[in-house]
Amino acid sequence: MTRVFLLPGDTFRVVVLLATLLSTLLSAQAMSAPLGEEMWTPDDAHQSAVRTLADSAERLVAGLYQAVTFDSGTMPAWENVKAMFHKNAVIVLRTSKDSMTVFSLEGFVKDFVDFIDRFHAEKTGFTERVLRMKPLVFGDIAHVLVLYEASIPGSSRPPQKGVDSFQLIRQGGRWWIVSIVNELPLNKYPIPAELLE
User: Fold this and answer.
1) What is the pTM of this model?
2) Considering the domain boundaries, does residue 68 fall inside one?
């Protein structure tokens, strides 16, 4: 039997390892065909909208937060958002204190639209901003760990911090998001120290 010992400061490595294993397991079935054959092919208008972001894994991740942020009376350009992802991307979100939900790309967008409707955010707008980012890029793969803050302007609800773990691949001359795993800080899950530096 292999024993695992954690040393002080290993929290970040454990989070990266667990996120990588989880996203690999979740993505394996969805991506059974070779990635080069299954790439999402947004039309030229949406492809060009993300082309400058997609030349860097970090810029693409930061661009996603900007893309889902919107002012009152407007909505995100969902086709531009979808153009950032591999078509078989897997998104896992903390949906309550006791559960996480696995979404397809279309399911993720629908869940976001439902959130906007539920909280009437089309009248107030919505903001999601990156507070800290820890990227790891190796060849054509990247992992980006993000501490973010989400808020509805004018809401009595306080801003909500969260941690997103992104897996990306570079294919066809650009980066694609293949998975996101999300967690919210709770008493038993404090924000990793590496994201507070």
Assistant:
1) 0.79
2) yes
Maximum Cα–Cα distance across the chain: 58
Parent domain of 77: 34-195
Distances (CA, A) of 175 to 20, 60, 73, 153: 17, 7, 31, 31
CATH code of the domain in which 173 resides: 3.10.450.50
Q: What is the pLDDT of residues 45-69, one digit of tens each?
A: 556 668 889 999 999 999 999 999 9
Pairing relation of β-strands 85-96 and 174-183? parallel
- pLDDT given at position 97: 85
Three-state secondary structure string covering 141-155: EEEEEEEEEEECCCC
- Angle of CA points 77, 80, 57, to nearest 5°: 130
Token pair recorded at residue 128: 């999601």
